[in-house]
Amino acid sequence: EAKRHGGNTYRVFVPSYRAVADSRRDLIRDLREAIQTHSITLHYQPIINAQTRQLAGFEALARWTHPVLGPIPPDRFIRLAEEAGLMHDLGHALLDEACRTAHSWPHNLWVSVNISVDQLYHRNFIGEVRRILKETSYPPRRLQLEVIETIFMESDAATYSVLQELDSLGVRIVLDDFGKGYSSLGYLRFFPFSKIKLDASFVRDMLSDSRSAAIVSAVIALAGDLGVAVTAEGVETEEYFYRLSSKGCTEVQGYLFGYPMSQDKVASFIAGHFRRVPFVNQSTLQS
Ligand code: C2E
Ligand code: MG
Ligand code: MG
Ligand code: MG
């Protein structure tokens, strides 16, 4: 497209609809291949008990480095996988990988895996979770599944029954990104989540904005009254850690404690952590 301005001609590159559609189609093709060849892997980010400062577990986060385009953000390729109907296969492979990896960690540590809406409502999701747990002989109690509130777009009955079935397998269910969307408190009444994760956007603003700080305090207090643990996301400095810890937050996650790391770095991270912060009380890690 050319724009005329004061006699000069500016050429502005506007990709045609066709070009966009082609590159999207190429990316989906590459994504499908990456799933088949297991080139999408998990990185693991530590989550720390906010009261004892001990390592509690890790969140598994998907990573894809495209051979030409380089790293593609997970938000993007997860959405693409959903749109292309590939999320079921991808999610299955990642859950399997997470259970196999976490199996070798010390027994007091859990792994938390993000589950997309697509996966949750796939006809045999429960059967597959059960099968993965069995095949990997991974203890259900050490598995957390993180879901976001868009799962509540389905009928209440469908949502309730799938969450209930997971719960009865002994798996813990975590409500991720609390505060990012509508975050109706009704969700907490509707289903007994084990934990809610306070979205990083609240955490980020809590030091500069008294309203955000008030909301953080209220969510932590409410969760405490309901007997639900709270993990604060996006904790990048000691000051955030101190504030959250003194408000009674259960766990913290963020660059202050570690970036998401590849599977082979986890073992030395764990060893280093337990050298610095000796293991004291297992019951504090059970939240
Ligand atoms: P999420 O589940 O809320 O994951 C937390 C995100 O915050 C991760 O981004 C993590 O790298 C980032 N993060 C952690 N600590 C800090 C910090 O201190 N500061 C900042 N600025 N960011 C921090 P990431 O890895 O890019 O993942 C983005 C989102 O993609 C995830 O958000 C999740 O919704 C989705 N995702 C990632 N892996 C998977 C997966 O295996 N399955 C599904 N369904 N979704 C996934
Ligand atoms: Mg998450
Ligand atoms: Mg989150
Ligand atoms: Mg998120």
Strand content: 15-25%
**Count of discrete alpha- or pi-helical segments spanning 4 or more residues:** 11
Share of residues in helices: 40-55%
What is the tally of beta strands?
A: 12
| Average pLDDT number | 90
User: For the CA atoms, what is the radius of gyration?
Assistant: 21 Å
Q: Strands of the biggest beta sheet: in what spatial order?
A: 3-4-6-7-8-9-10-11
Order of helices and strands: EEHEEEHHEHHEHEHEHHEHEEH
Termini separation: 58 Å
- The shape is globular
What small ligands are held by the chains?
ligand C2E, magnesium ion
Which residues form runs of ≥5 with pLDDT under 50?
Answer: 1-5, 282-287
Largest β sheet strand count, sense and barrel closure: 8 strands, mixed, barrel
Question: What structural class is derived from the secondary structure elements?
Answer: alpha/beta
Keywords: Membrane, Transmembrane, Transmembrane helix
Organism: Acetobacter aceti
Domain EAL: 24-274
Protein name: GGDEF-domain containing protein
Helix/strand layout:
Layout: E1 2-5, E2 8-11, H1 17-36, E3 41-49, E4 55-66, E5 70-72, H2 74-83, H3 87-102, E6 110-114, H4 117-120, H5 125-136, E7 143-147, H6 156-169, E8 172-178, H7 186-190, E9 195-198, H8 200-205, H9 210-226, E10 229-232, H10 238-247, E11 251-253, E12 261-262, H11 263-276
Parallel strand pairs: 4-6, 6-7, 7-8, 8-9, 9-10, 10-11
Antiparallel strand pairs: 1-2, 3-4, 3-11, 3-12, 4-5
Helix pairs in contact: 3-5
Bound molecules: ligand C2E and magnesium ion (3 copies).
One magnesium ion binds next to loops.
Architecture overview:
This protein is of the alpha/beta class and 287 residues long. It is 45% helix and 22% strand. The chain is built from 11 helices and 12 strands. It has helices at 17-36, 74-83, 87-102, 117-120, 125-136, 156-169, 186-190, 200-205, 210-226, 238-247, 263-276; strands at residues 2-5, 8-11, 41-49, 55-66, 70-72, 110-114, 143-147, 172-178, 195-198, 229-232, 251-253, 261-262. Strand 7 (143-147), helix 6 and strand 8 form a beta-alpha-beta unit. The longest helix has 20 residues, at 17-36. It is globular, with a radius of gyration of 21 Å. The protein binds ligand C2E and magnesium ion (MG) (3 copies). The site of one magnesium ion has 4 residues, from strand 8. GO terms for molecular function: catalytic activity. This is GGDEF-domain containing protein. Keywords: Membrane, Transmembrane, Transmembrane helix. Residues 24-274 form the EAL domain.
